[in-house]
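Q: I have two molecules that I believe assemble together. Could you output structure tokens for the complex as a whole instead of separate predictions?
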Amino acid sequence: MTERRITSRLLWNYLHDLSALAGSALLLLFITAALAAPWITPQNPYDLTTLSLEHFLTPPVWMEGGTWPFLLGTDDQGRDILSTIIYGCRTSLIVGFSVVFISGTLGVLIGLLAGFYGRWLDIATMRLADTVFSFSTTLLAFLLLGIFKHGGIPVVILAICIADWVRYARTMRGSVLEVKQEAYILAARAAGAGNLRIMLRHILPNSLTPIFVVVAVDLAVVIMLEATLSFLGVGVPLTEPSLGMMIAIGKNYIYAGMWWMILFPGITLVLLVVGINLFADWLREELNPKIERKG
Amino acid sequence: MLTYITRRFLQGIAVLLAVSMICFFIFQFMGDPVVRMAGLYATFEEQAEVRRVFGLDRPIHERYVRFVWNALQGNFGKSYVSRVPALNLILERFPATFELAVCALCIAFTSGLGLGVLVSLKPYALRNRFIMALSLGGISLPTFLTGILLIMIFSVFWNILPSFGRGDAVQLGFWRTGLLTQDGLKHLILPSLTLASYQLAVLLRLTRAGMREVLTQEYIKTAWAKGLPPRIVVLKHALRNVMIPVVTITGLQFGELLAFSIVTETIYQWPGMGNLLLTSIYENDQPVIVTYIMLAAAIIITLNMVVDILYALLNPKIRYD
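A: Yes, here they are, computed for all two components at once.
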């Protein structure tokens, strides 16, 4: 009964928070566009048969020299900017959601085990987590991809996961340590529940709340990281669309005044990340019991 | 306390050894260095000769010990590309990176903390909502995009600031500084703003969150009730307690700073370590990559140790056995 009321309060607050709604609307827009990419884009920018070099470096349609259907202009290979952006969002979202799912699951499991069993398992995993964390996700993923380069999207996802699980593991461990002391865990144990049952039925669901915030923040971080890695040339390969790589190509023409090659993918990336962060901010405030609201 | 420091120190050495082992094995399995050193058209006899001279025919554990021994003496081998010792190549670039990072940290720290305190005092005031909106933009803008946008505005559109290189630098002994010439300072503005931007937004938000939690505490209410001036309550009673975690997190995020300095240096062609690393990655220059990793690991581990020990010393609530 209480749980139901909490859920509905959360929903009510969500529906009455402008920035949370705006954030999720933005994210939803991008997800829809990415899913519908083959049907809504005027061109498949990575299908070489549809490209033609006579349309290279075309400005947006409202400028002199712009032609349909290249609404936002084209790049140096004659790829339509708008189509490449939509396909690039697809890559961003695939990498983002895959990493959050894989490293989230892994991190939650490691954190759960470390927090529950303690002792050497806790020391070993948390020392490892501290080390990985101090190298930072960005540096570690960059170095891994710098060494094992030209691997394709799965390798990018794997490299980011190796660096990223610690966020979840540390948060989860802290949360588990708190929940473990609750009276209902003692009650469950007195009722004869085994370790596995206590972990999965009692501790796991009760310690997941802080993980939700980490998931939301991490999705934004990973999408920015993928763009950064691709911008530096160690991320997704040249044959795949990516917002970061589009900006890297555009950078070569920055002094030629061809701003559309940088500005449009840049705005898209920022809007995508802002959308996720707006939602994450709301979630953090909502789930944090320590803050006085509307003070 | 002494036990704690000793344990921390031993752990640091263990981590460094682990990193060196990983580096060594990557080094072993990523391409055969013999082909590079003997040349593409060497005969089998010549290759075997190279293998013998460089000790590559020894068993793997022996080679690892030799690698660590050489590394301890600062000998990481020569760069494949420029044929000079890799460590010298990196150390030569160190001052440029250091100056950039320190400038960026100063900018991020002063503005981040200041704005964070300001915003936390009246979280729902219009001006502060505006600052928070800007900080949301700050954490949503990846460093590389910030850099490119700054170049577009200040170098391409207005043409008032340089976007390329370090400008005039002065040699002071072994240290080459760009801080003493007007040209050098001008070249520093855009890169340091770029590197500072993300950290600034993060620090602002950390400070604000910490202040909002602390300001609801009983001892702050007591301080107000005693009639202390706002300056004392906010800066002495509240901010001091927020500072410890904020400083700790900044110290522990040094790896992040290194990573973003790679991005910044690449965009501005800043002649630092990060720029060198990226070029070396493109050119498969393994000795330079390995040296960079080992050096970065050593710096990060030392810094973490210092931060942890300082934390234990400064915070009376924490007592290590």
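A: One point stands out. The first helix of chain B runs from residue 2 to 29.
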